[in-house]
Design a protein that fits this description.
Blueprint lengths: L9 H8 L1 H14 L7 H10 L6 H12 L6 H23 L4 E2 L2 E2 L1 H4 L2 H21 L3 H24 L7 H26 L4 H28 L10 H4 L5 H8 L3 H12 L7 H11 L2 H21 L5 H15 L3
Antiparallel strand pairs: 1-2
Helix pairs in contact: 1-16, 2-5, 3-7, 4-5, 4-9, 4-16, 5-7, 5-8, 5-9, 7-8, 8-9, 9-10, 10-15, 12-15, 15-16
């Protein structure tokens, strides 16, 4: 999901406010993705890291640490760790999904090969663990290593649930927690932990990241059927890739026998014909699946906002609330 097309973008305001810290993160990333013996590692990594991503996840770590009063060096290490984990998962995802484009550019697996993408992803995971340990904080090591395990588990669950129309909303939520929310919540939680904040504040930061990540992914999945040029989302990509997202799960649960036969043909069998996407969208609207999905995204965003509002007021806190509001603004 991209965060685009708004005059005042909260993530851009966060980046401006934290520009010094973000510069240090970028410098650390460049230093740690170097390799004396395998020049392909920095080549592949730079292709993705320098591709113009928003650095949203490391920004969450920098923002929460600063918001909590942290003034040491290790929030930079943790932010770089978060970005390395994210980049490693993207390299692996593109291989699994056989993707040809990422952020408008050819994917690493297309420019090099699958082996290079997988092995460089492994290298970045290893680098992320090195960075974690340098903080000397066992708790942040546990949080981020648990997140890495949850992400991998979520990806395997998504693989086994793919094109399986018996997939439930509970399984979908578990996949979303793995593929998106786990790293969001880890990124925000470690900001409070490294700053030594009380447990109730750390829990609020975790809750914010978890709910923000879930809302973020639900909105992205919704826009696949509800998007437009204005939202920056191409309508029907998930449908063509036969991904079981929340709108489709809701529509299938309410479908009659004829509709279920349609979904089995286009999703389970992959037999898609002209007009099928339009028919799918009509069925989603018929059963209120898009509006129900929208309401779930808004409910998760409300949870994130409530968690952040429980923390002491500050400019960074208010920017994080704005970021949460912005994530769901495209479906409001």
């Amino acid at each position: 999901m991209s965060l685009d097309d708004a005059t005042q973008k909260p993530h851009e305001r966060l980046a401006a406010l934290l520009a010094g810290d973000l510069d240090e993160v970028n410098a650390l990333i460049r230093a740690r993705m170097a390799s004396k013996h395998a020049p392909r590692i920095p080549e592949v990594t730079a292709h993705l890291v320098e591709a113009g991503g928003k650095r949203l996840r490391p920004l969450l770590t920098l923002a929460t640490a600063r918001m909590c009063g942290y003034d040491g060096p290790y929030h930079v290490y943790l932010a770089a760790t978060v970005e390395f984990i994210h980049t490693a998962t993207l390299l692996h995802d593109d291989v699994v999904d056989e993707s040809k484009k990422r952020r408008g550019r050819p994917t690493a697996n297309l420019l090099w090969d699958n082996k290079s993408s997988v092995l460089v992803g492994d290298y970045l995971f290893a680098r992320s663990f090195q960075l974690m340990t340098e903080t000397g904080n066992l708790r942040v090591l546990r949080i981020l290593s648990d997140a890495a395990a949850t992400i991998a588990e979520g990806e395997v669950l998504q693989l086994t649930a793919a094109q399986d129309l018996s997939t439930t909303e509970a399984i979908y939520l578990q996949v979303v927690r793995g593929k998106t929310a786990a790293l969001f919540s880890a990124a925000t939680e470690v900001g409070g932990v490294i700053a030594g904040r009380p447990e109730e504040e750390v829990k609020a930061l975790f809750d914010y990241g978890d709910a923000l990540g879930i809302a973020f992914q639900i909105v992205d999945d919704l826009l696949d059927y509800w998007g437009s040029d204005a939202t920056g989302k191409n309508v029907g990509d998930d449908f063509r890739e036969r991904k079981l997202t929340l709108p489709l799960i809701k529509a299938f649960a309410a479908a009659d026998d004829e509709e279920k036969a349609f979904w089995k043909r286009v999703i389970e069998k992959g037999d898609q014909r002209d007009g099928d996407l339009e028919h799918a969208i009509a069925l989603l609207n018929k059963h209120g699946a898009l509006e129900a999905t929208r309401q779930e995204a808004l409910a998760w965003a409300a949870r994130a906002k409530a968690a952040m509002e429980s923390l002491p007021q500050s400019e960074l806190r208010d920017l994080l609330i704005d970021l949460n509001d912005y994530v769901v603004s495209r479906v409001n």
